[in-house]
Amino acid sequence: MLLSFLLPIAFSLSASAAPSLTSRSTVHQHRIIQRLPSNEWFHPRDHPVHRLFRRDADTDSISYPEVGSPTWAAAYPSSTPDSSQLPAAWSAALNAAVQAGKIPNIPQSSSLTPNTNPVYPDGYDPTGPDVCSGTYKCQIPGNIWDAPDGFIGTGFDDGPTPASPALLDFLEANNETVTHFMIGVNIIDQPDAFNRSVELGHDIAVHTWTHPYMTTLSNEDVLAQLGWTLQLIHNSTGGRLPKFWRPPYGDTDVRVNAIAKEVLGMETILWNQDTEDWSLTNTGGTTAQAINSSMTTWLTGSKTPGLIILEHELSDQSVQAFEAAYPVMKSNGWNLQSVAQLAAGGQSAYQNAISINTGSVTPADIIFGNVSATLSATASSTLSSSSSTSRTPSSENATPSKNVASSADNSSNSAFSTWSKISVGRSAFYGALISAGVIFL
Ligand SMILES: *[C@@H]1O[C@H](CO)[C@@H](O)[C@H](O)[C@H]1NC(C)=O
Ligand SMILES: *[C@@H]1O[C@H](CO)[C@@H](O)[C@H](O)[C@H]1NC(C)=O
Ligand SMILES: *[C@@H]1O[C@H](CO)[C@@H](O)[C@H](O)[C@H]1NC(C)=O
Ligand SMILES: *[C@@H]1O[C@H](CO)[C@@H](O)[C@H](O)[C@H]1NC(C)=O
Ligand SMILES: *[C@@H]1O[C@H](CO)[C@@H](O)[C@H](O)[C@H]1NC(C)=O
Ligand SMILES: *[C@@H]1O[C@H](CO)[C@@H](O)[C@H](O)[C@H]1NC(C)=O
Ligand SMILES: [Zn+2]
């Protein structure tokens, strides 16, 4: 699959085989009403996400356009969202969070050279607590990097794509539920695969609208990237609101993290091992053999902590790499569980519903008290420096670390003052060995 070589990532995220917007004119356009199964959405609460994504069944007489229809697609940005067109309520919520001191006031990073790590102005250490960039392996308290001992938190990035159906078939045949970290424009392009992911009961999470380095963006652009993806999923699943997002390239920092959390109620999931499977189809990229070798090392190694392996539903090859490793995961006694459910402490991957396709959409706490309790019990172990056989000095070397979930699982900003330990691995220069192509993480 071609990955938008040297183009802004806003376009052509999925393969050229993806149906274009105009080719969907054959879709029969009728409108369905997705009535909410329960009588109310959220109880009135302080978190702005309640107001921004509120729907009340009693008053919701809105007809929602059919997923995949032109009307549905036309309501969303066709590429990079224009943050001057943010819904007024979103801007107001962002401004209120800024005024309340909830969004750390640090500068945007900048990408001086394509495909290298964004950098911050002099005086801002990306590995220190004031910035804490995920690209530099700094772990913001409350962000999820590790799975509980003995577990593999399963998830796939960058879907839906034309490779998704094969993955969904495999998962269905093996009775596995996973998390799909989806890109907004890819949902617009692949509504069938989106629908099927939902219908199979997988967890849908946010992977931004057009897959940028988020720390390079203004507050408003960060909000637009996350907000439109959340809105699309919300309006296309009978009102579910994902609880989790994953930053493209792992590129988040305290500012981006706070916008996701304080305005949209989302927590961040990273990873502790990286297959680099996104590069399987690139000249000079990784190989199935190299992934087999890395996987073998991880899967036969320590189960403390558990694994969150970065994988993609981006190409047939990346799907096949997972399929090849799957029996080895099972034969080595790992417990597989959707990474969003693990991060939620066994509870829902949604802010307001038990699951994607069962049970009611119900009032639920936005504050993750239970996530906190469960994760601090399971994720307090340290991650041993892992030797990886990967060929690029990328993101695989999560260093000894401690997740301090309990202090961060609180919609106040107190996490930043109760910092207890910051760990930083090697700086990652994702593009160093890959001379061309947009690099997906
Ligand atoms: C997606 O599912 C909805 C609800 O079942 C349905 O109305 C719609 O036609 C489906 N769209 C596609 C593209 O399959
Ligand atoms: C999403 O649904 C809400 C109603 O719940 C509606 O006001 C809004 O316009 C919809 N957004 C889009 C982009 O379709
Ligand atoms: C599928 O997985 C679920 C959840 O792990 C389990 O309850 C169920 O028994 C499994 N079904 C089959 C047919 O293995
Ligand atoms: C690696 O490849 C060998 C030979 O095909 C296979 O038996 C093994 O299951 C693979 N392991 C993984 C983790 O993919
Ligand atoms: C948190 O856990 C408690 C006890 O297990 C339960 O009663 C409560 O409903 C949970 N809250 C949420 C938001 O899931
Ligand atoms: C959140 O943090 C504030 C300030 O530290 C504290 O007063 C409050 O009890 C916390 N809330 C929860 C739900 O932990
Ligand atoms: Zn990605």
TrEMBL record:
Signal peptide: 1-17
Catalysed reaction, written as an equation: [(1->4)-N-acetyl-beta-D-glucosaminyl](n) + n H2O = chitosan + n acetate
Native source species: Lentinula aciculospora
Annotated region described as Disordered, given as residue ranges: 382-414
EC numbers: 3.5.1.41
Cell location: Cell membrane
Cofactor (UniProt): Co(2+)
Any GO BP: cell wall organization
Entry keyword set: Carbohydrate metabolism, Cell membrane, Cell wall biogenesis/degradation, Chitin degradation, Cobalt, Glycoprotein, GPI-anchor, Lipoprotein, Membrane, Polysaccharide degradation, Signal
One family name in Pfam for this protein: Polysacc_deac_1
Name of the protein in question: chitin deacetylase
Mode of membrane association: Lipid-anchor; GPI-anchor
Any one Gene Ontology cellular component term annotated for this protein: plasma membrane
InterPro entries to which the protein is assigned, alphabetical: Glyco_hydro/deAcase_b/a-brl (IPR011330), NODB_dom (IPR002509), Polysacc_deacetylase_ArnD (IPR050248)
Primary location class: membrane
An MF annotation (GO) of this entry: chitin deacetylase activity
